[in-house]
Records
---
Amino acid sequence: MDSARNWWGRTLLLSGAAAATAGLFYLGTGLHPMPWLTWLAPLPALLIAPRISLPAATAVAFTGYLVGLAGYGRYLLADLEIPGPAVIGILTGVSMIFTVVVLLFRGLLRRGWALTAAVVAPAAWTSAEFLMGRLGPYGANWSLANAQADLLPILQTASITGVYGVSFLIFGTAAAIAVVAAPRIDDQRRVVTLLVAVAVLAVALGFGAIRLAQSPSTPTVRVALVAAHGAGNVPEVGTMEARSRMAAGLSWLRDHETQQGMIIVFPEKDFAVDQNTLPAVITAFGAVAHRKQATIVLGLEHHTGSDIFNTALVFTPDGAEPLVYHKQRPVVGAEDEVTPGTGDLLVSTPSGVLGIAICADLGHPEIGRHYAQAGARLLLVPALDFQVDDWSQSRVQLLRGVESGFSTVRAPDRASSLPPTRMAASPPRHGPTTTARRPSA
């Protein structure tokens, strides 16, 4: 009887730990996370790992994390159109990474290396995030830091360390709590671990508070984002919808008053063109840019021969031929038919050096760093969100400015994709940057 009772108690304990891990990761990460729960997400698996056997700890960590990714799996399948076997491979792979980190933490802690466990576990997790960001098709979309994009004091750490420093803080805090609560650790090691964790968090929060209290020193640039009603699809070449979308954009440009030197950004793939329809687009938008003395960034799907490019045309006030940028990182699955571009685009203007990127390009931190190293102080980003991922994609992409020290102007196809409040143009200090005006065509 006692044996059966112990078995049921143990089963409930392990199931509860796995369920807590799953629930916290499901709510604290993904497309619409609750940022404070992100800090707790690794904690149940880390707390129970040193108290149970190796197979049990493996089962709790792997199952909990895998179930916690359920929403992300649905997104990969339904929205990004990734084949089922590939989705299974992705989810299994990242779940194995979490499991290995938990087991590494368990092994160090059971040897009495308390502070080492609290440091090595988050370092291992952060290293895995970095490698996924560099080698994986979706860049830094997997990072825990993305969930913190609206917590500005925390976010300031990314201006020094990149998003991976924020992930280290999150995982490290959970690891430190688990060390302090662990069995068979002497009080001195608990106190040392606690003091180190509190000191690191205090420095990060203090740094964030100081930066947020400083006044922005960068100049203000007037920008308008223009999106046609009903955006979200890409009208086919030559269709009535494509002509209507083009006419709506031109109508807004002609009828609305703009300041000289203003920058106007349209969404990604606002409509489709081919070699026959492109000249008329260039003539019409180039004439408006010259007359208004504005810089216009127009997102197009460009069909040329057997290739399809996700393109941004940049019309400058001098009336010259538009500069051309092709998206370098098409979305794997949803944009498999798109030919990737091969280089950055920098534009010199009276407002400074501008860079051009398109939506998912900025899931990749290295693209942001390239632009920063080339002197770009403002990045113009046509974008197109699926309805389900508008919040997450906007924050993932705007974080590149926080990391690399430029302001980001992101033009999604829907107003709900924008951050809820306007912020001054100083992302290294204040976080994601929106713009002064956002009319609709």
---
Amino acid sequence: MADQSFQRTKSIGILNVSLGLLEGLATQAGIEKLAVLSNPSLTLPNAGGNKQIISSYDAPVRGGLARMIWDQWGVYRAAAKTGCDWLFLPKGFASFTTAPPIKLAAYVHDAMQDFYRAHYPGTFSRAEAWYFDRCLAATLRRASVIFTNSDFSRREVLRIAERLNTKAPPVVTAGIGFSAPAQPPSAKEENYIVVLASQWPHKLTRLALDYVRRWQQQTVYPGAIHLAGQLPGDLALANHPNWKHFRRLPDADYIPMLKKARVLVCFSAYEGFGMPPIEAILQGTPPVYSRIPAMEESSQGCGFPFDNDSEQGFQSAMARALACDARTVQDWADLLLARHNWQAVAERVMTGLNLHT
């Protein structure tokens, strides 16, 4: 995890998954030693006792050339020194310049590179796209086992392997875990909805703002709109009354905001899993989210999905979410926690590692 940090990551979700996986694996009795390759910016879960050894590296998190050197050579050298049997890469990108010194496992979150190549060409530089394409191809060639967050992502990994004419290693759906909130959801005493935003095109922020603005005007919604996340560079909120913009929020700020919200709105054109609707439900907040394969799979019929090309469908979902009662949301939370918890994820990972030892 030495190349991950809250300040620099492109995906807070992937960072949270990495931390959750670590905490889940640290509790597994079948692990005798867990060596964590970390960096000074990370606050790691306090788990694992004497079997957890932490080594800190500050160069990889700087990005640029230091990150590339770590990816291609540094992480393998560090892993070889641990004396462990496996190297687990929670971001899924292996070195394409050298073979791993110990057995390699990787967690591949999605096929976002392929999606951007088809739908948003030119978003990333040719050099960056080439680099991560090569890293993912190396994962497919050299990993002993690959884990994914959903069955949808598993199919995506197998599709990419077929496109590259590469025989994929075993691909196991491990999933993503969540924890029950420390405090149960409380009554909604404030009147606002949270709308997620992002500078990345697949998050459809422009469409989200258009739909929400018109919904606000047509329904004369009296509450506030809390926009959470970084906006695309040329997008402004001048014509959006009663909106508040919060840029990148740590969980310590985001979760309390989410807990008090009436509704969470999450637009996306592509996800490997889709964490925000589940996070909202666990905090007692009904989500309205894009009807795409990964989020439908992970949400298990809970919440209020809509088709991205149907503004009427979005408005209908908003009306049902605002009318949703707390008991229904709690029933959803119980169902989702039973399916998505770190103990179950860690057990699936351990099974996958043991089968392919």
---
Amino acid sequence: MNLTAAGIGSGLDLESIIEAFVTAEAVPSEVRLQNKEDRITTELSGVGSFKSALSTFQSVLDKMSDTDDFNKQTIDVSSSDISVETNGYASNGVFSIEVQQLALATRMESATFTSADDTVGDGTLTFTAGSDTFDVTIASTDTLSAIRDKINEASDNFGLTANVITTDAGTFLSYSSEITGGDNELTVTTADTAIDNIATNATISQNAQDAIIEINGNTVTNSTNEFKNSIEDVTITAAVENVGVITTLTIAQDEDNGKDLLESFVSAYNALRSTMDVLGNAETGDLAFDPNIRQMKSQLTSIVTDSIDSLSGNLDSLSDVGITLDSNGKLEISAVAIGTLSTGSETLADVLENNLNEIGELFASDDGITSQLSTLIDDYNGSDGTLTVWKTALSLEKSSIADEYEALEERLRDYEDTLRKKFGFLDATVSSFNATSEWLTSTLSNLPGNNKD
């Protein structure tokens, strides 16, 4: 407020009167703005909690968005001679594996020279391994080092590495192929006799060979150390040649993985519903009576209770895997039987053992439960989702409150200035009247007849 001393002339307490008028003008607006700010802050908190709960639920859905997420297997290998992977669909079983031979690629060495700076001559080298081949043109000025670089940098090089090696016996070019297998022996040829010493005169220091393993006593040969589908849906990689030593491979379906996923889904769904119940509480909820809460509850209920007609298996709803809704709208895997029906726990155990692939389809197919729920969440929580747009609007509205307070302050200053002008006139008028009264009193007291002496 302005700093003045209204009422000095009149003796009236005009400062208190002005303050009372300004306060009376300010309080309703300040209360309105404070209530508005409190409302927006509460709604922002509620929307933030709602979005966070949806994001948490989505993180669980992301772990069950692919049918392979349900098809996990336990793999036990008794030694490090092999490593094993499955695609989740392999049949259970115990297998005896023996690594009799590892796959190798060819290594070759050229004739020896005096140093890496030696030149050879000009011509064309042709490198071949199986069906792969490439050429390198050599100039008469190229040293062994330059030849090495040309080979390694050839654009169509199929995986051959050249090196210059210097030993007590001299310097030579070494060729190492990456292509393993007995049918992929490396050859280096040329039609130019000037470069025979780095081509046809090169000697093999390691022959290419196939990998050989035995599975339950049956021989399996492969050009690489990776044996795919020798056991269907299984990839075995030979790591150590160990003739006569048996590695035991045990494959079993990981039913606990599917159970853990479903229990996590139930828990995450119920946590989301609990958050929504708290936010939508009619007396204490930050989003009490908000239609988005009611609408999402209805949509969630439909998704987790409806059947999916497009599925090919015997499972087309959550109830088929033992998951049902209780009276509070929460999911449960019931341990209590109704009549002759199996409990939810018994139903779940049965489908985990016998219908695991169909559980994956129920959740992770294109129109499965995971897909439907993720689409619903994105409608609310995506970049242009309902809650995201609402949060942005609330944030903008909250930031504008400062401008409203500033406008109110300016209006109150103008109002106070107007009051001071009006009461200033009153102060001057009363002061004038007081001066006249004092003059009259003094004059009348000095009139003849009023002298008390």
